[in-house]
Amino acid sequence: MLVSTDEVAAHKSVETHSKVQLNLLQHDQDRVNERCKTLEEELQTLRVYYSLHQSLSQEANLKEQYSRAVKLFEEALRNREELLSINRQQNQQLTLQLHQAQNQCVELEESLQKATGYQQDTEEKVHKLERLEDVLRKKFGVRNFRTNIFTFKPTAWPKQLFGTFSKEGTHR
């Protein structure tokens, strides 16, 4: 079997052409592999960006929730301060009323003591007058001295019997 030079040349030409095509295909495959790597890296970067975006979105939501919670807390604090201010005012008013009531109580106690003293003085004076009445009844023989005292002339009474009376009405 003799192979002709033309066939060998054609075969070499096909082989060279095939090698060139193989090289081109390998080169295309390498470029495609590089492109795949690049796309995978971009995809990985996008995944990282998406994850960061989700984290930032969650962070934004958390910030918003935190801001709302802080606002609610500040409002509650203002309300508490207003209530404390109102309570302080009420306490001051009640303290003032308590002091006034205590002063009135002291004044009433003093008035009661004075009234009790006046009552005791009056009872003592009544008792002295009743004793004097008894003495006068015995001395003058009058049964009901109170009805006869107005008919009796005071000039007839001796000063030694009654003594002198002071402005307070006590016998000396």
What can you see in these coordinates?
- The chain has one domain.
- It has helices spanning 5-140, 145-148, 159-162.
- The model is unreliable at 156-161 (pLDDT under 50).
- 84% of the residues lie in helices and 0% in strands.
- The chain is an all-alpha fold.
- It contains 3 helices and no strands.
- Keywords: Coiled coil.
- Residues 73-139 form a coiled coil.
Q: What's the order of the H and E elements?
A: HHH
Shape: rod-shaped
What structural class do helix, strand and pairing data support? mainly alpha
Helical residue percent band: over 70%
Total strand segments: 0
Report the sheet-strand fraction: under 5%
Radius of gyration: 64 Å
Number of domains: 1
Q: Tally the helices: what do you get?
A: 3
Low-pLDDT ranges: 156-161
How far is it from the N-terminal to the C-terminal residue, by CA? 184 Å
The pLDDT mean sits at 84
Q: How does the major sheet shape up?
A: none
